[in-house]
Amino acid sequence: MKYSIRTRLTSLITLVYFSVFLFLVIASALALYFGLTEEIDKKLKLERNQMVTIVESEFLGLVSASGVNHDSLRKEVLGELGELYGYKDQFVILSLDTPDGPQVFSNGGIREVRPLPPEGLLARDEGFYNQLFGTRFYRTFVTKHDWGTLVVAIEGQTFFEIADELKDILLVGLPLTLILVLLGGRFLAGLAMRPVVESAEATEKITLTNLSERLPEYAGEDEFGKLVATLNGMIARLEHGVNRVQQFTQDAAHELRTPLTSLRGELELAYQEKDLSAGVQAALQKALDKAILMSRIVENLMLLAQSDTGNYPIEKGTFRLDVLVKDAIYDMESLIDERPVAVRLLHCDEVELAADHQLIQRLVLNLCDNAVRFTRHGTISVALKADRVFVEFSIADTGPGIPQENLPHIFDRFYRADRARARPSGGTGLGLSICKWIVDAHGGEIQLSSELSKGTSVTVRLPLQGTR
Ligand SMILES: Nc1ncnc2c1ncn2[C@@H]1O[C@H](COP(=O)(O)OP(=O)(O)O)[C@@H](O)[C@H]1O
Ligand SMILES: [Mg+2]
């Protein structure tokens, strides 16, 4: 979709306005033209009748006369015509068939009309014509009689004058009203589309963790109100379903916890028995390792299930993050055993952090645990830097790195980049997703970058005062 509905509505409104406007202008121009023409034609008919009466009662002598008589009669006709048509917007052309051939008389108030008749006007068939004389339009009426041809004409300029004026108004008015309609239409379309935009924004904000929220109620009982109600109904059903699944996970993890703990206890007890054969002892050791891994998984699952339902009680307190990090480094060193791996603390600001102590500890330990478990040789570099608002914890190793195509999934649950390699190292695949949740819950950011056979580095940025 290239154009928004708002833009399309605005264009539509403008187009409709423009078409209606154009239609009205054309229709009124036509009505005006025909109305005015009809009016003039009526006048022309009266004029014609009058002229015919005058010609037939007074001028017919000319048709048969000649010589001196002819000249005086001619003067008389011209005088009469001058009297009748001395005014401006009319004229008459009279062609009388005399024994000396056709005699043409014309008169009217307009000078430029004088060299009449224009070629062919008298030769025309009977009827009404629009004729341009000089610069002005005349409506002419041609009629044929026994004694010759009569043309009466009235200036038909009114329509063109009105049209001219109208054109001026249109040239200014049309763009102006078009702009008004465009702006008004845009405003109205925006108003009409606002609930849609608002609902879309609200929908965008709804995720698995805040399914209890709903789209803003829409008062109207129109199609859009129905859509909002339908969407809200769907979100409610989703919420219900998701709650059930999350509750189930949480309950399952909880149920597994107790038997696992006692299993671990029993195994540890059995392991401490004095006279065990080496085979049994090795088997017990393996079983114990598995039990420990399982209880870790269960514990992580429980944590994530609680975070999903928003049930995890985040307790905010102040503590020294640099001390926590130093403790973690100490733990790391003891986990490295014989591997040629050096742990370096590159930078360590003294930092007071307001956050959930247990969760932050878990975050740091998870990241340290990954670095230690995956790094065979080289260095693990840790840094802790703080400014007034944020603290940045970073840990970089020279481990095997993570293939580029796996990076987008690295924070997914149970995701392990290389299962074959990761499994014996005792991971659960939940560590990084827990880290991500902890960082999110504290309003921070976590970034992981990695290059195959070069190493991995993770940076966590947290607000010193937390957000909750
Ligand atoms: N520092 C690291 N070096 C190499 N790979 C890593 C590192 N950290 C994480 N990974 C990869 O990311 C996967 C997911 O990590 P994580 O969620 O902590 O699970 P786990 O550590 O339990 O396997 C790991 O299985 C591993 O493939
Ligand atoms: Mg891990």
What do you see in this structure?
With 468 residues, this protein is α+β, with helices and mostly antiparallel strands. It has 3 domains: 5-162, Beta-Lactamase, CATH 3.30.450; 223-308, Orthogonal Bundle (Helix Hairpins); 317-463, Histidine kinase-like ATPase, C-terminal domain (Heat Shock Protein 90), CATH 3.30.565.10. It is 54% helix and 19% strand. It has helices at 5-64, 67-84, 157-205, 223-271, 278-308, 321-335, 357-374, 419-422, 431-441; strands at 90-98, 101-108, 127-133, 136-145, 148-155, 317-320, 341-348, 352-355, 378-386, 390-397, 445-451, 455-463. The chain has a 5-stranded antiparallel β-sheet. Strands 7-9-10-12-11 form a 5-stranded mixed β-sheet, covered by helices on one side. A two-stranded antiparallel ribbon has the order 6-8. Helix 7 packs antiparallel against helix 9 (431-441). Residues 109-115 have low confidence and may be disordered. It binds adenosine-5'-diphosphate and magnesium ion (MG). The site of adenosine-5'-diphosphate (ADP) has 22 residues, from helix 7 and helix 9.
Which range does the strand content fall in? 15-25%
CATH topology label of the largest domain: Beta-Lactamase
CATH architecture of the largest domain: 2-Layer Sandwich
Poorly predicted runs of 5 or more residues: 109-115
* Run of helices and strands: HHEEEEEHHHEHEEHEEHHEE
Number of strands: 12
Shape: rod-shaped
List the bound ligands: adenosine-5'-diphosphate, magnesium ion
Count helical runs: 9
Main β-sheet, spatial strand arrangement: 2-1-5-4-3
Question: Kindly state the mean pLDDT as a whole number?
Answer: 86
The main β sheet shows up as: 5 strands, antiparallel
Rounded radius of gyration (Å): 51 Å
